[in-house]
Here is the input.
Amino acid sequence: MSNPRIKAFFNALEHRILILDGAMGSLIQEFKLEETDYRGERFSDYHMDIKGNNDLLSITQPDIIKSIHKQYLDAGADIVETNSFNATTISQADYQMESLAYEINVESARVARAACDEKTLETPDKPRFVAGVLGPTSRTLSISPDVNDPAFRNVTFDALVEDYIAATKGLIEGGADIILIETIFDTLNAKAAIFAVKTVFEEIGVEYPIMISGTITDASGRTLSGQTSEAFYNSMAHAKPVSIGLNCALGAEELRPYVEALSNSAVGECRVSAHPNAGLPNEFGEYDQSPEQMIEVVKGFAESGFVNIIGGCCGTTPAHIRAIAAEMVNHKPRALKEDKHRMSLSGLEPFYVDKDSLFVNVGERNNVTGSARFKRLIVEEEYTTALEVALEQVEGGAQVIDINMDEGMLDSKEAMVHYLNLLAGEPDICRVPIMIDSSKWDIIEAGLKCVQGKSIVNSISLKEGDENFIKQAKLCMKYGAAVVVMAFDEVGQADTVLRKNEICKRSYDTLMSIGFPPEDIIFDPNIFAEATGIEEHNNYAVDFIEACEFITANLPHAKISGGVSNVSFSFRGNNPVREAIHSVFLYHAIKAGLSMGIVNASQLVVYDDIPAELKERVEDVILNRRPDGTDRLLEI
Here is the structure.
């Protein structure tokens, strides 16, 4: 990046632990401002009380805000946060000041910029940086505010994106060096912020560093929307943040294990930050932890090599930051961890797939085209009972659940959104990652706007050519999803091993050209029905297995999946034979590199438990070992 300040920021990160500032609110309180102070001259006749709108002070009392920044800079802060935590139209609605949100962001960044520039002139060997803050808003995309309607949301993904786009533009206009998405209690809100920030970067043709900081709300070690810190990182990694971290809610001692978990999770160029509270609040909501007490805990973060950026949140003061800055000069920053290209998914909990993983069962029964029971429940709007289908899949061993609402009798998009919103309130189900399955892109995109975890899109392909394929792939990256790529091009579905290999290689190369993470590519080389009585179909399973071998050998880090029940479709109604076919097919496909499959996990039989005669005849069909294989299988 050509911006010299941002170059200086990355250079500083390489050499030392950077110091973030402390609480803004604590210092504002010391000024004992009254209603008239908040109003200033400009809002002297405003129609309602606005005391407490601290972000507005960047307009009405900029000298006070600048003086607070200066106190933290004098204490040793390398990075100061803009006074814009609530500078969104959603949050400013509390004061009926929605129209001022953009201006507040601009002025907040300008005030911080001026303070940093003045300090940098004093210490040119130690430049200071402005982090433009995007706060979480008071609304949640993953949680219903109405206990009687768990699918209801009082804000949409698109509305948050629009709000965050305006805020981001204002922060950049005002001079921010970094965009800090912080105090995240709902990961889906943060996904909307990331989508907005990336949209702004695309529009202006420049990328700024992104810092992300979540909030662990209590001793459970989870965000308010239920994610563990590792799952949170997996959901955020697509932003390619300069740092991932935690702040607020807890003191440093309580925060330590979760900072450690993030330090273990973050890979590549992602660093780790922490800005904890000054302990836990007392019975009056005040923070009593002294700088000396706080530093005894915080220095352990650095001694253990957990952090690259550290500061303070609620209750911290310039004295706390001065103590932290003085201690951190004695420690080296956390070392970056190699990215081993492990597929890192998440629901409420993390889920990983790499070359050493066992076969991943993707639950298939939440599919209106594949399950008569599920279809009936959705068509009849028996959504609560339909959730039991998902729970049965998870309890039966599914590590990912596939959800498909493609049905002519449904408003499929509305059904997908409603079901996913309900699912978000069921921790026993949504602890696993979701596979959003549809042949219609608008349904997939609607689903992506409902899922806080890192999900899988099923699917995209070259069916409509490179342009549409690239467009959808870029959106999958922007939403933070892995993707199933069908072996399908402008000519049609690949039905031979040569066509499968050709299309998968072309798809892979195209995705690599746009920077798509190779570990997030899952190829589906098409599983077709065996034993149909048509000679041309006899090698379908062998072609699939050989395609798995090709992908594994030639397309690094890519995974392989397929709809396993397709292979036995000729025997529908004969479950014992179908289950044997699935088991035999999986046995050979997994050895060839099949990573995962859409299956009914509870109905898989163990390969070694299949009766010998049945197993032999099924293998004759699957491996195309003899021309009369189908007839011999039908005999038994």
Notes: The radius of gyration is 27 Å. The mean pLDDT is 96. DSSP finds 24 helices and 18 strands in the chain. Residues 252 and 276 are 5 Å apart (CA to CA).
